[in-house]
Each structure stands twice: as structure tokens, then as C-alpha cells.
Amino acid sequence: MCAKPSRRFARNWQNWSGSVQSTPREIVTPRSLDELAQRIGAYGRDSRRVRVVGGGHSFTPLVQTNDVLLSLDGLQGIQEVNGQRGTVKVWGGTRLKRLGNDLLALGRAQENLGDIDVQSIAGAISTGTHGTGVRFGNIATQVVGLTLVTATGDIAECSSDQHPDLFKAAQVSLGALGVIASVTLRTVPAKRLRFQVRRERVDSCLANLERYKQENDHFEFFWLPYTPWAQAKFLNETDAPAKDGNLWGTFNKIVLENGVYWVLSEACRLAPPLTQTVSKISAQAISSSTETDYSHRLYATPRMVRFREMEYNIPAEHFTTVLAEIRECIQQRQFKVHFPIECRFAHADDIWLSPAYQRPSSYIAVHMYRGMAYEDYFAAIEAIFRRYQGRPHWGKMHTRTADELAALYPRWDDFCQVRATLDPQGIFLNDYLRHLFAVDAPHAQHSAAFPSPHNAS
Ligand SMILES: Cc1cc2nc3c(=O)[nH]c(=O)nc-3n(C[C@H](O)[C@H](O)[C@H](O)COP(=O)(O)OP(=O)(O)OC[C@H]3O[C@@H](n4cnc5c(N)ncnc54)[C@H](O)[C@@H]3O)c2cc1C
Known about the structure:
31% of the residues lie in helices and 24% in strands. By secondary structure, the protein is of the alpha+beta class.
């Protein structure tokens, strides 16, 4: 790592969707582990408040702060490779796209990823970010060790052998236990995938659900509201060579899925009654295509059209019922929505705050174009998720309270205990996290309604 000094300046910050804003007193970008540890130790002694930011792609106010915003953008890349174990130790700030390329150069890959690659590895695991595929867990399940800088400025190493409880708490920890300086990941040999996309009736996706889930490495579908159609996506490992420069694929992703979709979305924002028509046009426009490439390049798609999102983990056995209720709810309430409903699948894990903790999982996500009313829509869909033991994605919008979360997560109290022990002063808490973990704060003011943008510490 180079030893350039950290950048330190105050400026406005906002997340990707623009729904969360703040004006930190200081933005800090440490360039070494020593500098990071020294700074955190000093902030702890001075009772400062610190939030860590990765790629800023969470929809919830997890990183909102008016004190210190700490970025690990200066700590990126692979630190160590263990060829025998197939593991790599990487800096916590490493962006997923860079990680994918660096791993490919070593002939390795992450076994699964979500649908964008601009997050940092520490940010992605901290919220339980996931992809799709019943043989895979969320990204945090790929983690075999963590280096954490705690509120005292101490450096703690943890894994399933070393401080196993801390490890299970830290794998998905919302930046509330400390700063993840490094992540050691289990990797797989580099693989190429065949990506197939096609229009399919949503009823056909449901009728074939178990077969599609089992027969494909990665299966997901997007149901287009007010239509019988879905866009179904299948990714499977192949020996076929990667095809460079798929012009049609690039045109499709950039111009049709983003450019044209942005124009249609703006039309909906200006004239919300158009949403049903736009959803129907989008369904008609779904084309079939096939692409072969290295895995990390195919999981991710460019997302240039900004939106808000709520996503819940639902026990796999309730998926079909929940989706049926969502379809009925949208039809009955006639919500002005043209963004599709995204459906994905993952296996159970043993990470304390992972939404997939101890249950085979499905994920259902609803979206609303930026600038359009989302509150009633999200509230109605969230009410359905609640009835089926839904656990919210930590990086996406929800209104759950500490009591409700404690009932949903068997290890909730253990996590809170670890947090209180590591950071009794709460230097890593902002108002939002105090509310989430029910930690007393005289000035905390949060309601259980979908929040409007505001600036808070
Ligand atoms: C367009 C879009 C597409 C998305 N697609 C998916 C998807 O396919 N699947 C999915 O599950 N989610 C998805 N998400 C959600 C996203 O993956 C998560 O919100 C993720 O946490 C964002 O990573 P980030 O690096 O931007 O982290 P941030 O949003 O910056 O931070 C997230 C959390 O991580 C903490 N954190 C960050 N760095 C550190 C660190 N070094 N140490 C300790 N804590 C840290 C922060 O404090 C915060 O609590 C998507 C979001 C967007 C906007």
C-alpha cells in the first residue's frame, strides 16, 4: 500500500439512489492498516462517531453520519494468496469488479455474486448481499476469516477456529462491530458460464420452479406487473470459450435495459397512469439471448436507472404463496409501478444476522423508480412479507423494529451482546443503527414508517 496521507475534508455525501444524504464533518481514507487502527483508536478516545462506507449502494441509512465517514477506497486489492487452500486475503475496500478481474488473473473466481459489481467486498458481506442459486449461500458464506479494527483501535482476527462467535457475528454485521480491514475468501477455479435469458409466462416459471432451481446453477426471474410475463434468467457452467465483444449483448444492456428504460421510467414519473402500459411494453420487449463469459462478468449488469428497493428473504416453502399474494395485491390496489418484481433463491447458512440463517431461502424484491411514490406500495408488500416470517435485506428499505427483528433472528441477542462488548460507547452507531438495535440515545428519533431523506448522526 502506498503511504500517501489520507484525504480529509467535509462535503456532502449521498447513497446511490439519492435517498440518503449526509454532511460528514470529516471524510477519511486510510492508506494502511496501521493508520486505520490509529485513527479508530483516537476516535474512540475522543468519543467521536464513525460510519464506514463501501460503495454507498445501500438504500437504508446505514452509513449516514454527521461526524466521521470512513472509506476504505485506499485499501483495495489482493493481499495474500493461499494456493493450497484456494483462499485469498483481500483488503475490505476492494470493489467486486476489481476483485473479479484480479481473481481471474490467478485462475480463480468467487463462486457466486449479486447483480452488480460496484460494491466493496466488506460492504457487500456486511448487509448479506446475495446472488441466486440454491447450491450457493450469500457472499458472506464465502468468507473464511476477517480482520476487524475494533472501537479501541485493536486489531482482531477471527475465523471458525479463532474467536468463532465473533466470526459468526462479524460476517454480516452492518458496520456495527468495527471496521473490516481484510476479508479472507474461499474461491473456486475460474469458470465460464452460459447465460440464457428469455421471456416466459410467470405461471410457467412457477410450474417449473423446483426443476429450474435444481437443474440450473443460477436461476432467477423478474415478473412484469400487470402482465402474465416474466424475464427468466439461467446461468450454467460451460466449457465453451468466452466470447469477447458481444455487441448485441452490450447494446441490449446499455441502450435497451438502461437508456430506453430510463426514458420510459421518466414518462411514468411524469404521468404515473402510464405504468401499466410501460410494464406491458417492457414485457413485449424481452428478447431471448445467450452469452458465454467468465462468471464475474455475467453475474453483474449495469444499473443506470435509479430506483428505491425493498427486498425480503422468505422461507423457500412460502415463495409461491407470497408471490401469488403480491400479484393479487398489485392488481387489487392498482399501484402505479412498472419495475419488475425480482425473485431469487439461496441455501441456508449459519451466520447470525444473515437473512438466510438456518433456512433454505427465496428472495423477493420490489422496486420503484426514483421520484415516484413508493410508500403505500412498499408498505402493502411488506405487510405480506411480515406474514411469512420475512427477514429484510439489511441494505434495502424496510420498517422493522428491534423487537420484531429479535423474534426473527435466533442469535439476535448474542449479536447485540457482542456489539455492546466490543463498542460499549457506540462509536460505530448512528441514529438508524441505535434504533435498529434498540440502543438508548437521547436524541434518536425514528418512526416505523418508510423514512424520508434527512440528515442525522
Ligand atoms: C443497483 C443496486 C443493485 C443491487 N444488487 C444487489 C444484489 O444483486 N443482491 C443483493 O443482495 N444486494 C444488492 N444490492 C444491495 C447492495 O449489495 C448492498 O446494499 C451492499 O451492502 C452495498 O455494498 P457497498 O459496498 O455499497 O456498501 P455500503 O452501502 O457503502 O455499506 C453497507 C454496509 O456495510 C458497512 N461497511 C462497508 N464497508 C465496511 C467495512 N470495511 N467494515 C465494516 N463495515 C463496512 C457499512 O457501514 C454499511 O453498514 C444492490 C444495490 C443497488 C443500489
